[in-house]
Amino acid sequence: MLGENTTVHNVLSDMVDRASSETSLEELWYRLHTAITELQAVRFSNTMNRKVINELIALQDKESNVSNEVCIAREAVQKATLALSLAEARLQVLMESARHDASEVEDEVLKTMIWGEKAIELEREATQDVKDAEAAFERALQALDMFWMGKLHL
Questions:
Q1: What is the pTM of this model?
Q2: C-alpha–C-alpha distance, residues 14 and 73, integer Å
Q3: Could you count the other beta carbons within 10 Å of the beta carbon of residue 115?
Q4: Which of 47, 85, 110, 130 is most buried, taking the most CB atoms under 10 A from its CB?
Q5: Cα 106–112–115 angle (5° rounding)?
Q6: Domain for residue 82, yes or no?
Q7: What is the spatial distance between Cα 14 and Cα 39, in angstroms, rounded to a whole number?
Q8: DSSP SS3 for 8
Q9: What's the domain count of the chain?
Q10: Is residue 126 one of the residues assigned to a domain?
Q11: Is 2 among the domain residues?
Q12: Phi/psi of residue 14, each to 5°?
């Protein structure tokens, strides 16, 4: 089989070097046909390599984006936790001051709970996105390994 750096010029030069004046036209035709077939196989292999590499790059980009989303979600959870702590402190002050009615206190508690739920949901979604991206990346690596193992056995 021809190497990856094989060119048409190299193949033809090799054919001419091996040919002698006694080489028949049929033999030359056979060698040319064999060389063309091998070149097509190398082109196909190179095309497949490029496709696999492009897919891996795309998956790496996706994983990077998802990781960024997770960081953003974690920041949102931290902000929500801080907001929850502040709201609890305000609630404590409101309850102790007795100047506000119960509905204001309930509204404050409700707002705080909603913030906390949103933050937790964001983190959960981002974590799932990371898991999905990691799984897709792992499948791509396994496919690449299978591709290369099959190529080595040819």
A1: 0.48
A2: 61
A3: 18
A4: 130
A5: 140
A6: yes
A7: 13
A8: helix
A9: 1
A10: yes
A11: no
A12: -65, -40
